[in-house]
Amino acid sequence: MLEPLVSVNCLRHVYPDRTEVSLCGLEMEVNPGEIVAVLAANGAGKTTLLQHITGMLRPVEGSVRVFGLDPYEDFERVRPRLGVVFQNPAEQIIGPTVGEDIAFGMGHLKLSRQEQDARVEAILQRLGISHLKDKVPHYLSGGEVKKVALAGALVTGPELLVLDEPFSQLDMAAIKSLVSLLRSVSREDRTAIIFTSHQLEPAALLADTVYVLNGGQVAAWGKPVEVFQQQAVLEKSGLQAPDLFRLVALLQQGGLEIHADLDVEKVAAEILAAVGG
Ligand SMILES: Nc1ncnc2c1ncn2[C@@H]1O[C@H](COP(=O)(O)OP(=O)(O)OP(=O)(O)O)[C@@H](O)[C@H]1O
Ligand SMILES: [Mg+2]
Q1: How many Å lie between the centroid of ligand 1 and the Cα of residue 158?
Q2: Residue 72 and residue 204: Cα distance in Å, rounded?
Q3: Does any ligand 1 atom lie closer than 6 A to the CB of residue 179?
Q4: Are 152 and 102 in contact (CB under 8 A)?
Q5: Nearest Cα to 97, choosing from 120, 119, 76, 126?
Q6: Ligand 1 nearest atom to the CA of residue 41, by list position
Q7: Which one of 57, 129, 156, 241 is most buried, counting C-beta atoms within 10 A?
C-alpha cells in the first residue's frame, strides 16, 4: 500500500490566547488520488487543521506528516507541492491583475515567460474565467475571487489540493460546476484533495471519505453515505444530515425496506417499489 500523502495523529494546538484546538481519536489520512472532506461546525478547528497541513502552524503535541515530511519544519519542500485556497481567498490574491496574480504562484517553477503565459491561459480557460484575466482583483465578485484563487492553486499542478470551505458563498450552479471541476482535477491530474465544509450536501457530491470532528475528536469517518446515516453523531457535532437521509430514516422507521443513498432518483425508485409492490 502506498504511503498516505497526509497523516494527522492526535494533533493539539494552543493559540497565544490559550485557545486549545485538538484532533484526536483516530489517525486522519489522505491517500494518493483520494478526496477527503473534513466536516464540522463553526469553530470546531477545521481551519486550524488545514493550517497545520500547510505548515503555517506547528502543533504543541501530536504529529502532522505531509508527503512523509513535517510541513512546518520542511515548509520549503512541502509548500511547492501543495495548492491551497484559504477560507477567505481575497487574502491570497495579491497581483495587480488576475492574470499576473495567477502567474505569481509559478515563480518557483522557473518557466519561460511563454510557458507561464500558456499555463495561465489554460487554467483560466479550464475554470471558465478567461474574461477575468485583465481585471483588477479588488473588483471581483465573491464567487469570482474563489475561482481566481483556485486557478492560482491549480496552475502549478499540485500533488495535493487543500481547500478551506470551497463551497461557502456559492450558488447551486456554481457548486455543481466546482464539484465537476474538482472531480476532473482528481481523476485526470491525480491530485488528492482535502477540503473542509459545514455544508454536508456539496461535500457528499465530491468526497470519497468524510471525517466529522466534534470536541477535538474524530466523531465519525467513512464513506459519505455511511456517515450521513449516523444522525445522532452528526447532530451532536452541530451538523444535520441531508434531508434525503432524514427522510429515508423516517420511512425506514415506518417499516419501508429502503436504503439510504445520495442519489434522489434512486431513493425515489426504491420508495415507489416498496409502496407499490
Ligand atoms: N489566531 C487565533 N488566535 C486565537 N484563537 C484562534 C485563532 N484562530 C482560531 N482560533 C480559535 O480556534 C478555534 C478553532 O477555530 P477554526 O478557525 O480552526 O475553526 P473552524 O472550524 O475553521 O470554524 P469556521 O467554520 O467558523 O471556519 C476557535 O475557537 C477559534 O476562536
Ligand atoms: Mg474555518
Answers
A1: 26
A2: 30
A3: no
A4: yes
A5: 120
A6: 25
A7: 241
CB of residue 168 inside a 6 A radius of ligand 1: no
> pLDDT above 90 covers what percent of the chain?
88
Per-residue model confidence (pLDDT) at position 235:
95
Nearest to 82 by CA among 166, 191, 203: 191
Can you read off the three cell numbers belonging to residue 124? 483560466
Q: Report d(CA 177, CA 67) in Å as an integer.
A: 29
Q: What is residue 2's predicted lDDT score, i.e. its pLDDT?
A: 72
Residue pLDDT, tens place only, 86-122: 999 999 999 999 999 999 988 888 889 999 999 999 9
In whole angstroms, give the CA distance from residue 230 to residue 103. 44
Per the CB < 8 A criterion, the answer to whether 221 and 212 are in contact is yes
Q: What are phi and psi of 180, to 5 degrees?
A: -70, -35
* SS3 call for 172: helix
Q: At which residue does the C-alpha cell 509559478 appear? A: 106
Mean pLDDT of 7-16: 94
Residue 238, pLDDT > 80, answer yes
Q: Is the pLDDT of residue 1 over 70?
A: no
The alpha carbon of 15 and the centre of ligand 1 are apart by a number of angstroms equal to 9
Taken in order 234, 240, 244, 246, the sign of the CA dihedral is: positive
Choose the residue to mutate in 8, 13, 20, 46 for probing ligand 1, maximizing ligand atoms within 8 Å of C-beta: 46
- In short, whether 213's Cβ falls inside 6 Å of ligand 1 is no
Q: How far is the C-alpha of 168 from the C-alpha of 87, rounded, in Å?
A: 9
Mean pLDDT of the chain: 94
Strand partners, 38: 196, 211
Domains recognised in the chain with CATH numbers: 6-223 (3.40.50.300)
